[in-house]
Description:
This protein is mostly helical and 414 residues long. It contains 23 helices and 3 strands. Pfam families: ARM_PUB, U-box.
Amino acid sequence: MEIEKKPHNLMDFPQHFRCPISMELMKDPVTISTGVTYERKSIEKWLFSYKKTTCPTTMQSIDNYTITPNHTLKRLILSWEGGNSHQSSPPPPPSSRHDELISLLNTVESTPFKVSSLKKLKSIIEMGDEIKQDFKRNGGVQMVLKIVMQILDENPDFIAFRACEEALGVLHQLSLSEEDEKTMKLFSKPDLMKAMAVMLQRGSTEARFYTISIFQKMVMVEFDWSFVIQDQGMDFFKSILELVSDEICTKASSCALQVLIEILSSSKKSRLKAIEAGAICILIELLPDSNRSKCEKIMELIKLLCECAEGRLGFVEHGLGIAAISKKMLNVSNCATKIGVKILWLICNFHPSERVLEEILVFGGVKKIVALLHIDGRSSTKDKVVKILKLHGSSWRRYPCFPSELKDYLGLKE
Length: 414
């Protein structure tokens, strides 16, 4: 059963949707040189039929008769009309700052003072989920993303760059979910990803944090990164690895680690690009001084990279790799120990050179994996330990520090 769509009266719609001349809901909003928006037919009649030379609202003299379509306001009006035409449950009530929000969205795209307007917009939507949903319902995401993508214009000026940074600050406040298909589709635009990659490389410290935090939200909803990796390549990973190494902004570093884990887990091609960008060296050198949470993430990344031949080669060629992994086993967490055993298993299985085996022994790796034999019951970690010792126990038992009682346990020949 269809419900008849009732005509709008003066109290049905937000005041910012009303033409100051006709007082009716605008269908084709346009902005004149004074910055005021009117219905096109009304302002054209005022200026060109009645030959007026002032702005009807401000009474300022008009020298420039250019009329500019206000696309943002038109999108807001269409979105509002669409929401009010559904015959199902009524739309959610507007937020407490609704009128102020609509006014900002109406002016931010056309105003020359975008930076200050975006800062104000950010302060409003920080106030809670109700306002954030109001922002999404009224086309705010589309408008802000458009500002971000202006950074891709040829030779963007400083103001455009700063506006992009502030726009990212607004987007940083929003949550993403797979259920919000409309917003996810907007975030999937190739040009947006290009713009955010530019900000990750060239933005301020704050803007880079905003960008990587948005990326973290995107990886948690299984975003497809294949285009970004293909388009940006090694530079994309260099920018993220630079944030991983950031000792000042620990939040940015933590976000960057999580983004890398999710991206590398889903694609071998991405691992090769990360290796090419120097990931193995950077991660190994960060590992010794990392806390528990950071240590587990770094070790997980090293494990993912060591699942590639190029990653294993980079690991064994780094002088601190085996020492760093051996030191963390049994000293951080069960998770770190499990990952450490997996890394040593990969190295022992594919790169069992005499130098590598000696380093594992000298830096305490063998002692740690022998201790893991005493774990009660069976586990995948213990199985890997037994396999490592059976593969290379005959080489290690020549050293006095190798436990002689393991000979029978492992079935080693004299």
